[in-house]
Every structure is written in C-alpha cells, then in structure tokens.
Amino acid sequence: MELFGSSKPAASSAETKDALKQRVAAEVAMANAQQLISKATEKCYLKCVPSPGTSFTGKEQTCTERCLERYFEAFNIVSSTYVRRVAAERQAGALATDATA
Questions:
Q1: pLDDT tens for residues 32-66?
Q2: What ranges in 2-101 are assigned the alpha helix state H?
Q3: What is the domain-level CATH number for residue 49?
Q4: Which of 4, 24, 27, 61 has the fewest CB atoms within 10 Å, counting from its CB?
Q5: Residue 26: which domain range?
Q6: Which residues on adjacent β-strands are paired with residue 9?
Q7: CA–CA distance from 7 to each of 11, 14, 16, 60 (Å)?
Q8: In a domain, 2, yes or no
C-alpha cells in the first residue's frame, strides 16, 4: 500500500506502534536525564557555592565535582536496585501465574 502517492509502502500498524513507543520512551528518558542533571546541579550548587561570585573558587569547584559524583553514584545504586527489585517481582508474579495455571 502506498502512502500519499509515494512509492514506499506504508508501515504496518504494529511497526508504527513500536516506532511510536520507542520514540516516546526515548523522549521520557531524555526528560528524566535532564531533570536528574538539573536537580543534581541545583543541590550541589546550593551546597558548594554559598556566595556566588564571578567565577568558581578552587574549593567550590572541587566541592561541586565531588557532590555531583556522589549524587550520580547514589542515583545509579538506587536505580539499579530498583530495576532488580521490579524484575524479581515480575518474575515472582509470572511464576505465581504459571503455578496457578
């Protein structure tokens, strides 16, 4: 089937849905990453730069770098733990469903 007179066939409904799901997932991931960076920057800036000036002092820069490293490390630990827990719960749910069938 042609799409608006083009010589390329139209994508199937399933392909279109999958492509849309992937695009939405990518946009959600990007928004989440931007929010994470914004929140980390805000928290570390407030902690490490008590009196903003025209440039970072060495102490402020070191504090900010370490703060961001710790923030992202903590996020990664929490995120991976959460993903493992959800996977284990899904597997346990699937096993329970299989056992009742």
A1: 999 999 999 999 999 999 999 899 999 999 999 99
A2: 13-48, 58-100
A3: 1.10.287.810
A4: 4
A5: 13-75
A6: 2
A7: 12, 20, 18, 60
A8: no
